[in-house]
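Figure 2 data, in text form.
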Amino acid sequence: MVSKMHILVLGATGFIGRSLVSRLVDKNHTVYAHYRSKPPAPKTGVVVFRDYQDISLDQPIDVVINLAGCPIASIWTNRYKQKLMNSRVMTTRLLNAWLKKRPTPPKLVVAASAIGYYGSTRDGLLDEDTSIDPNQSFSSQLCDQWEKESLDIQSIVNRVVLLRLGVVLGKSGGMMEKLWWPNYLGLGSVIGEGRQILSWIHIHDVISAIEFILTHENLVGPVNLTAPNSVSQATFSKDLAAVMMRPLWLRIPSCVLHFSLGDMAKELLLTGAAVYPKKLEKAGFDFQFPKLTAALKDIVAGHDDS
């Protein structure tokens, strides 16, 4: 039986944050939900803060889960790249400064990152022992600075865990929210050549993995949050079309995406890498959705955790 904890969640109104807060409350934890824009709906067990610094320094916080960051799927102008950096690196820096003021630091900090750390043009299975992208892509630089800032707090807490997230699949957020209507209308498509690898994970397994991390003290440092079975983009598109019982006849040429979306298309849409959750599997985590078809069927049926 897991003891009740006081948990601060940054990014509580985001795609992952909404599901996570609900799960934590269901498990009788007290959640301090931090939001920037639209506040979450009132719920028993959730204390809402527009500014977490309003939380009394004497109020106990056992765990901090930092999911803050503006959406990565946008056109990467220089200005937006800086916004991506600030929303992750600077936000984490300010959080750490506040945590260092507290008389009793949290026991655990769980900080979001992404598999962009590894880059997207590498062969073979990549796990947590794989080095950073040698090509120094923007994604890898962003994740590297983000993680270094998150690790700055490890001098005063027992554990820091970095969630290297793959593409999170759920009906009410992330990539699936953008793909839902085009595919429903029979306008799903293969992107580019379709051979690029997609390392994905169902939202249910993301939330369950974070719960698992809370109680498994052997998990520390980077942890890949991806399903153990990556697929090609073409396979993903074909499986989604089949599950939704829609045709798949369109293909978006790479040149169109390069022209319209620039570096974002190059790093996130037209290339990919097979990232493997070695640490989670070694620790005994049981994926509910290790295979893509079952995950898509659950999402299309409306049974995801989002």
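Caption note: The first helix runs from residue 15 to 26.
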